[in-house]
Design brief:
The chain has about 290 residues and is α/β, with parallel strands linked by helices. The protein has helices spanning about 25-30, 55-75, 90-95, 110-115, 155-165, 180-185, 200-205, 235-250, 255-260, 280-285, and strands at about 10, 35-40, 40, 45-50, 55, 80-85, 100, 115-130, 145-150, 170-175, 195, 215, 225-230, 265, 270. The protein folds into 2 domains: about 1-125 and about 225-285, 3-Layer(aba) Sandwich (D-Maltodextrin-Binding Protein, domain 2); about 125-225, 3-Layer(aba) Sandwich (D-Maltodextrin-Binding Protein, domain 2), CATH 3.40.190.10. One of its GO terms (cellular component) is outer membrane-bounded periplasmic space.
Length: about 290
């Protein structure tokens, strides 16, 4: 990780209001500062480790893109301001200028394109369920009469609402502030099912006190693409970010980072998610694109 931070000065920053920037690259060049949004508990994408350092697959990709930005602006170093974001406030903080670039576990879809811009995709996930081992819930058809927890402000929440409406199933939706809180709801038996992106569920399971107590089940409710967020209307900044990410993917560096975070022991509990890359993700690495999947 130390090599990733070479040439950067880290400054912790609490979320605060900021003016909309029409030219992000110009502002970065003038101030020597870039504001990066990160998640606090999106294992293994962007989260705090046991030393309260921000780590993860998406975080490393974002730090590598800074090299492309520095080269574009001919800057030897950048001051890096880290801004923690949640599912509920991440788009607003990008829109109002508090955050220049957010790379975490944010789904790129057509609805969100109306509010923010997205980079080329960095990951592909499927919405699935986590339950206690031995639970009678095996698939979506088993949700009737159950309590299902989701993180507020996520596409999982919207997908679950649509599923309840279309299936006419009678089940209760419990909203949680973040992924860790949602798992605590599941762990305390206030809900029987936790719906979320499969990679995040495996990350939550891996850092739990007893990973063997939990399993990810069911057919996928949807397939989605993750991407980094930026403000709309700034084509120059998007081109630089896309170029940096595409180079990482096509050079094999993104796959190396994937293997570090999904196929080797990771903090804080040094457990291995043991998730081989899907063919769809490998194709994305070969041919980066910025099209949403839904």
């Amino acid at each position: 990780m130390a090599s990733l931070l070479a040439g950067l000065v880290l400054v912790a920053l609490a979320p605060r209001a900021g003016a909309q920037d029409g030219d992000t690259l110009q502002r970065i060049a003038e101030t020597g500062t870039i504001r990066l949004g990160h998640r606090e508990s999106s294992v293994p994408f962007s989260y705090y480790d046991q030393r309260h350092q921000v780590v993860g697959y998406s975080q490393e990709l974002m730090l590598r893109v800074l090299d492309t930005i520095k080269a574009e602006l001919k800057l030897p170093a950048l001051t890096l301001q880290l801004v923690p974001v949640t599912s509920q406030n991440r788009m607003a903080l990008v829109q109002n200028g508090t955050v220049d670039l957010e790379c975490g576990s944010t789904t790129h879809n057509r609805e969100r394109e109306r509010q923010v811009a997205f980079s080329v995709s960095i990951f592909v996930v499927e919405l699935r369920m986590m339950v206690r081992r031995g639970s009678p819930v095996k698939d979506l058809a088993d949700l009737k009469g159950r309590r299902v927890v989701v993180t507020a402000g996520t596409t999982s929440e919207r997908a679950l609402l649509l599923h309840r409406e279309r299936s006419a199933q009678d089940f209760t939706i419990v909203l949680a502030r973040d992924h860790d809180t949602a798992f605590k709801v599941l762990e305390s038996r206030q809900a029987e099912v936790f719906l979320l992106d499969d990679a995040l569920l495996h990350g939550i399971r891996a850092k739990s006190a007893r990973p063997e107590d939990w399993q990810v089940v069911g057919q996928p409710m949807a397939t989605e693409a993750y991407a980094c967020m930026m403000r709309r209307g700034d084509a120059a900044f998007k081109r630089v970010v896309d170029r940096g990410l595409s180079q990482l993917m096509q050079s094999g560096e993104a796959l190396r980072l994937y293997r570090r975070w999904f196929q080797r022991p990771i903090p804080p509990r040094n457990l291995n998610l043991d998730m081989p890359p899907s063919e769809r993700l490998l194709q994305l690495y070969r041919q980066p694109e910025d099209r949403p999947l839904n």
